[in-house]
Design brief:
Elements (H helix, E strand, L loop, with lengths): L7 E2 L2 E9 L3 E8 L4 E8 L1 H23 L9 E7 L2 E7 L3 E3 H8 L1 E2 L1 H20 L12 E4 L4 E3 L31 H4 L6 H17 L9 H10 L5 H4 L5 H10 L11 H16 L10 H16 L21 H4 L8 H4 L34 E2 L2 E3 L16 E3 L8 H19 L19 H4 L1 E6 L5 E3 L2 E3 L2 H15 L3 E6 L5 H14 L3 E6 L4
Parallel strand pairs: 8-11, 14-17, 17-18
Antiparallel strand pairs: 1-2, 2-3, 3-4, 4-6, 5-6, 7-9, 9-10, 12-13, 14-15, 15-16
Helix pairs in contact: 3-5, 3-9, 5-8, 15-16
Length: about 525
């Protein structure tokens, strides 16, 4: 890792190294114009030289597409640039650890934490897929978990450097052994990629999250990659017998080798996950939950097996289990002739509004494991960590300690609604009770004014990213700062109430926060204007 500490690239001053990978060195940096901390990935010069001008142009184009992704579960890409021969990406600085490190040090998370993480990753991939972006390198190393349990997918706009069309060497520079562990069959065989490739890699990642190991192993990258083409993954149920069958079926369907028999988008995965998470939060047995899209895909796979001449019988390890939906049909039909899907899998990718015929669901059969084989799975609550504010931490501070994750987002909304209705009922009851008016001291005429009303300046960022300060429209950062200074001087306020539209961008929110700090506001009370 080259030492670029204290060097300035564009408007970013590199403060200290954060890490290094096969393609880039990562630094904590200060964006001097906005006075905020960012993460700057400096691409390794040797890699850029090997990629050529065509590859560099493609990288810039796709990185700018990634910069347009504005999603709470995606690490925000701010900008890309070049200075003194160094190509770099400036992105959101996430105070957290990658999922690979967490799994290595803490073991397999409990089922609630698994669903919490998997759902957020699916939400990120849903957004990227709908934007037409293929990540190409979904794996635990690229999934970050913050101290509050928020999950963010990193390296959008960077992973495409793996796909160099001028190089057929799967172990070329920049590709670590970790990448072939998660590659889709079409990625291994050099076919054109679409978002379904990310679904496969996501399935492999889910497999590892749920049992602590990847489905394929090998002594070299090529040996591992080939297994994605012609080897059926070991049943997830055998790796962790405590898992509900429906989750195992779902993960194996994501890992279907034939794209037509796989979940057709992360949006479909997310749709089924919402059903699972809702059942889990309500305390229902998720083993009995029916997932509409998964059942449609399993039915399509079963039909494909019946209509394919010469299809071998299911292997003994899958016979008699609910894992029949991910038996050798996927390996046998690895030609991936997507024309086949027109007749057989026409309904594989259904919307969440489509009705599901429960009568067509496959009969549930209890899962079993091989006789005489015992599995030892260490299950823990997914950890997070508490850090002091960045300005209070000295450079080069030791890694923070782990503690239990805050799973507040998993609280059942039904419970919150119950509390709301109880409070409302209490107020209504109080209104019906005749209470004599309180005696007042006629000698006291002082009226106490709510300090919150008199010492508050209101700001708003609407869906079009327009900023208003007390109903005055601000066109740029300088006007925002000037309006805030004027409002503070006139009201001597210490608090800024910021209303944020969920469609607004992270950049605009940072602008208001920076301007408020420079204007002298000591407290910012922000809220989302609506919930989608």
């Amino acid at each position: 890792m080259s030492d670029l500490v204290d060097k300035t690239l564009g408007e970013f001053r590199l403060l200290r190294p954060l890490g290094s990978g096969g393609m880039a060195d990562v630094y904590l940096a200060e964006q001097v114009t906005l006075q905020r901390m960012v993460a700057v990935k400096v691409l390794k010069p040797a890699l850029m030289a090997a990629s050529g001008e065509t590859m560099l142009a493609r990288f810039k184009q796709e990185a700018m597409m990634a910069a347009g992704l504005n999603h709470p579960n995606i690490v925000q890409v701010y900008t890309i640039g070049e200075d003194e021969g160094y190509h770099f990406i400036a992105q959101e600085f996430v105070q957290g650890k990658d999922l690979a490190s967490i799994l290595k040090t803490k073991g397999v998370p409990d089922i609630g934490s698994c669903l919490h993480v998997i759902r957020q990753v699916a939400s990120a991939l849903k957004a990227s897929g709908q934007a037409g972006i293929v990540h190409r390198d979904i794996k635990p190393e690229n999934i970050l978990v913050t101290k509050k349990g928020e999950v963010k997918v990193a390296d959008f706009g960077l992973a495409q450097l793996h796909d160099n069309p001028n190089s057929g060497n799967i172990t070329r520079e920049g590709m670590t052994l970790g990448t072939p562990l998660y590659m889709s069959p079409e990625q291994v065989s050099g076919k054109e990629l679409d978002p379904r490739s990310d679904v496969y890699s996501f399935g492999v990642t889910c497999y590892q999250i749920l049992c602590g190991k990847t489905p394929f192993k090998g002594n070299n990258a090529l040996g591992i990659a080939v297994q994605h083409l012609n080897t059926a993954p070991p049943p997830l149920k055998e790796q962790n017998p405590k898992l509900p069958d429906v989750i195992c079926r779902m993960v194996h369907r994501m890992m279907a080798k034939r794209r037509a028999l796989r979940y057709q988008s992360a949006a479909d995965v997310y749709s089924d996950l919402k059903v699972l998470v809702a059942a889990y939060k309500q305390g229902r047995d998720i083993a009995l939950v029916k997932l509409p899209i998964l059942d449609q895909l399993d039915a399509a796979a079963k039909k494909a097996k019946q209509e394919t001449p010469g299809m071998p019988a299911a292997s003994s390890q899958n016979a008699g289990t609910s894992s029949g939906s991910y038996d050798d049909v996927d390996t046998f039909l690895m030609s991936d002739d997507d024309d086949y899907s027109a007749a057989t899998v026409a309904t594989a990718s259904v919307s969440t509004r489509d009705a599901f015929d429960a009568g067509s669901a496959k009969k549930k059969v209890s899962a079993t494991t091989k006789a005489g084989k015992t599995k030892s799975i260490v299950t823990v609550v997914l950890p997070s960590w508490i850090e002091e504010d960045e300005e209070d931490q000295p450079m080069g501070r030791p890694a923070p300690e782990f503690e239990e994750m805050d799973l507040t987002p998993m609280v059942d909304v039904t419970f919150l609604l119950l509390i709301f209705f109880m409070i409302t009922a209490a107020f209504n009851l109080q209104k019906k009770i005749d209470v004599p008016p309180a005696k007042t001291d006629e000698s006291s005429t002082t009226v106490n004014q709510d300090p919150e009303d008199s010492a508050t300046v209101e700001a708003e960022i609407d869906a079009q990213n327009t900023i208003f300060i007390d109903d005055a429209r601000a066109e740029n950062f300088a006007e925002v700062l000037q309006f805030l200074k004027t409002a503070k001087a006139s009201s001597d306020s210490v608090e800024l109430k910021l209303t944020i539209d969920p469609e607004s961008t992270h950049e605009k929110r940072i602008q208001v926060a920076d301007a408020a700090a420079q204007a002298g506001f000591t407290k910012i009370n922000s809220r989302i204007s609506e919930v989608n």
